[in-house]
Amino acid sequence: MRRSPDEVSELRAPSCRVASSVEKENLNTSGALLHRLNHVTKMFPELNSLLECNKKNLPNGKSLVIIDSQTDGSFLLHHFISLYIQGGGKVVMLAFAQSFSHYSSVAQKLGINLNSACDDKTFVFLPGLKYTLDGIINRDVENPLLDTSNCKSLHSLYQAINSAISANENQSLPTLLIIDDISTLLYLGFQHTEICTFLTYCQHTVCKKTNGCILSLIHNDSDVEDQSSNLLSRWFHHFADIVLELEGLQSGRSKDVHGQLKVVFTRREQNDLHSLSPLSRCVHYRIRDKGVSFFALGTSPAIL
């Protein structure tokens, strides 16, 4: 079902959609983390190990996606913001779900001043709804990113991203493009095919031209029948180099285990004999007062 821009605005917090009862519990847990973090310089060191990256080895040239179901995966975005800024890179945030003050508040608790980063042009905040509505009003019939059937264009979004990346004075500076969250475009009525085209353009600009990284967040709740969301989620498994799938526990919320994370490497090195089979790693996670801990399945302290 398509929503008007006004309806989308009402659903913006925390993730531009109505949450299920199970998801609300997980959102409360995730939100508690964002308000209680206390100057953690390394947010999720275990996650860096899972992704085989760190601030000295950024995932440049790669496309990543966070797909959450029955939980809120947005807390992972703050890890990547911290990773790139501490690693001497640049972050371009295309935000639909939260305001700049939200990201700034969380970053400050991680020891990062996003206001200073904005002054240094190492953090660029782009309000997604503004550029989307501009594209709907100011249509360009000659642009290939145009939705001619509904007179809606994603061209303004792409132009804003391209300008933010091109304004990089130091072209060797690694750039991370974050889209939080791509589901909003579905709620606005864009077809998944149009969103795929838009993301392909962004990938070419960020990953191919600047050797940067693109990170998208999409919601695909298993208890909601949404064909467009399902199609887009499946497409991401072909588009992205690394897929981070977060799920709430099927047994319900637990005080010791808050969810499950599955990291899928869709592309392997050419000299890898198992390159045709994606590598996946699955762990449980628990959100704590000062961070998030990841551990192997079945190894929760409560079980051991």
Automatic annotation (TrEMBL):
It comes from the Eukaryota. CDD domains: Elp6. Pathway: tRNA modification; 5-methoxycarbonylmethyl-2-thiouridine-tRNA biosynthesis. It holds the Pfam family ELP6. One of its GO terms (cellular component) is elongator holoenzyme complex. GO terms for biological process: tRNA wobble uridine modification. InterPro entries: ELP6, P-loop_NTPase. Belongs to the ELP6 family. PANTHER family: ELONGATOR COMPLEX PROTEIN 6 (PTHR16184:SF6). This is Elongator complex protein 6.
